[in-house]
Amino acid sequence: MKSRREILQISSLGVLGLAGCMGKANGNECSEGVEKKENKYQDRGGSEGWWPHFGCSVTGDHKNYGADPNADTMELAWNVRMPISSTSVMRPLIRDDVVYAGWQTIAGIGKLYALDAQRGEQRWVAEYEGGALLPGSVMKDSIYAGSPDGIHSFSVETGELSWSFRPEGEWRFVGGVNGGDKLYVFGISKNEIDALYAVEPVTGEIEWEFRSNDISGLFAIQGDSVYAAGGGNIHRISKTDGSEIWSVPMGYGYKSGQVIANGETVYAIGKSNQTGEEKISAIDDSCGKVEWSVLSRDKKSWMGMAASSEALYVSVQNESTERAYGVAEMVALDRKGGSRLWTIKFENMKYSSVELGNPIIAGGEIYVGELQKRMNRSDVASVNVIEIDTPERSPIPGQAFRREMSRTIEISKEPRYLSPPSVVAGKDTIYALVGGVITAIR
Predict the structure, then answer these.
(1) Is residue 239 part of a domain?
(2) Which tens digits make up the pLDDT trace of 230-266?
(3) Positive or negative, the Cα torsion across 365, 368, 369, 375?
(4) In a domain, 17, yes or no
(5) Which domain holds residue 140?
(6) Which of 95, 152, 191, 288 has the most CB atoms less than 10 A away?
(7) CA-based torsion, 18, 86, 9, 194: positive or negative
(8) Lowest mean pLDDT across 45-59, 237-251, 324-338, 395-409
(9) Looking at the domain assignment, is residue 28 inside a domain?
(10) Which positions ≥6 away from 250 have C-beta within 8 Å?
């Protein structure tokens, strides 16, 4: 079994899925004597969009094409099953009319598939002997995929390998994302300090590197900065030269697993190795001031985040009990102070558990993958749709409104799944990936 850090860092969006792209938030004033370092970023409505965290661009080429699926009429359009493998497929990557997905065969050969987005037909498949290929981003004429030993550039037209970037040392996984100008690559080391690299996308040459222990693969890119967790801190790093702009400690013994940049506010999930407590912190982007923090309650774990202009939406996992294997929730937190606005409970059936992936926001709806793991029966993978609007009534202190799901779309049944579906948006379609099956819903 993988640790939660391994899930966050190596599978990236396999268990957690894709965190929703954001709008702007209003930051508070910085502490007295602290110098503001403003960022230059665009709203998601701009032609270039932005990359709040690993994989959050609506499509793989870092542009926002205005994904607007119609949740009320959605049906399964197609699904593609990949060959038997020794690893679970991670999230797909969408660009224009192509869906990219990575895979590893039982023999340890990495495969990268390019599928037609409308019909699911295979355009090409690339192979790599160094292990699983996980697509990270698309820039111009190349798609970049990470593997256990490096990151690799393939032609979007033919799948031909252009170059490979392999950092010195021994690595458990290397992956990367497009920041609009450079390829930002993270390396999870086997026995040394982890690294974040800025790599020239045409040649694969390193422009700068940032070193820290426990760097999370779920880092953020926005404007002139990269945001990464490492060494118990959240770091804002200059995209120009890799220098640190500010660093915020999560707390004694805390390690962060996910960071998202959201205009004037940065959000991070952290877990204490000392107490086991988990918290979400909202940080002022300009000076690193913590605006508020919320601790998890009742042995619950914060898993993944997405946000609208008013609320932060979080998938939550309850620890198992004597009578149940686990219960999941979706909660909405007030972006201004972290108070809970509403809760949706995903009740488990007898002899089953419920797990949720990372939520995304598209077309004014929240989409989140759900996995019902059932003993002695086939597991059930679904995509849930939730209205993004909050209740008009004022919340009662210490309580939260109960919400209901708008729709649940069952996508697949298998004897066993390893993780909930990862969900991404592309134009008018939602794509879900679970257990080697890619499904298009439109």
Answers:
(1) yes
(2) 888 899 999 999 999 999 988 777 777 788 887 788 8
(3) negative
(4) no
(5) 4-12+41-441
(6) 152
(7) negative
(8) 45-59
(9) no
(10) 229, 232, 233, 234, 256, 268, 270, 279, 281
- CATH label of the domain that carries residue 186: 2.130.10.10
Q: Which residues contact 401 (CB under 8 A, 6 or more apart)?
A: 341, 342, 343, 390, 391, 393, 395
Residue 208 phi/psi, 5° resolution?
Answer: -160, 165
Please classify residue 428 by burial: count the beta carbons closer than 10 Å to its beta carbon, then call 0-12 exposed, 13-18 middle and 19+ buried: middle
Decide if 406 is inside a domain: yes
pLDDT of residue 103: 78
Q: How many domains does the chain have?
A: 1
Amino acid identity of residue 200, one-letter, is E
